[in-house]
Write a structure and sequence with these properties.
Number of domains: 1
Structural class: alpha/beta
Number of strands: 5
Radius of gyration: 15 Å
Bound molecules: adenosine-5'-diphosphate
Largest sheet: 5 strands, parallel
Strand content: 15-25%
Strand order of the largest sheet: 3-2-1-4-5
CATH architecture: 3-Layer(aba) Sandwich
Distance between the termini: 44 Å
Order of helices and strands: EHEHEHEHEHH
Shape: globular
CATH topology: Rossmann fold
């Protein structure tokens, strides 16, 4: 049984993230989407809000679950007995950072491999920060985020 961790901020989860998750769930036996609790980063949504929205967005993916973690991703992966870290690549600009991260993780624990996936082209440009920008300027984000995120943000006051 191969368990993969899909770690990230997911602030909020987008259709790009979901596409990566769905492909990961076709390849691996189980995928755990893991929201990093990073105390230095002040998020747009709280970690609990992000987890709740992810939970509502992945109901149809039977072998996927959501969790949150603190500290090193690699330690969390070991705790969950995962052998794979799943990451998405959008453009060359993602590559340098992702390469460094995967090599650092591999130096920390050679047993856990990073696997990169790409999305369908229509989701490729979507990032959580672009979505926040559009939302905070009252733009329509319905095409870019799962229904649960759209409904939640629609009813949330912009502060
Ligand atoms: P982080 O803060 O760790 O970058 P994100 O939540 O922004 O976390 O992203 C998690 C992972 O999903 C990263 O590997 C990122 O490159 C990938 N990702 C995000 N959006 C997309 C997308 N539209 N297409 C492909 N991969 C994506």
């Amino acid at each position: 049984m191969t368990i993969a961790i899909y770690p990230g901020s997911f602030d909020p989860i987008t259709k790009g993230h979901l596409d990566i998750l769905k492909t990961g769930a076709e390849i691996f036996d189980r995928v755990i989407i893991a929201v990093a609790r990073n105390s230095e980063k002040k998020g747009f949504l709280s970690v609990d809000e992000r987890v709740k929205l992810i939970k509502e967005s992945i109901l149809d993916i039977e072998n996927a679950e959501v969790d949150s973690f603190e500290g090193l991703t690699i330690e969390y992966a070991k705790k969950r007995e995962a052998k794979v870290l799943l990451r998405g690549l959008r453009a060359v600009s993602d590559f340098e950072y992702e390469l460094q991260l995967s090599q650092a993780n591999s130096a920390l624990s050679g047993d856990i491999k990073t696997v990169f996936l790409t999305t369908k082209p229509k989701y490729n440009f979507i990032s959580s920060s672009t979505i926040k920008e559009i939302y905070l300027n009252n733009g329509d984000i319905s095409k870019f985020v799962p229904e649960a995120v759209y409904e939640y943000l629609k009813n949330r006051k912009v502060s």
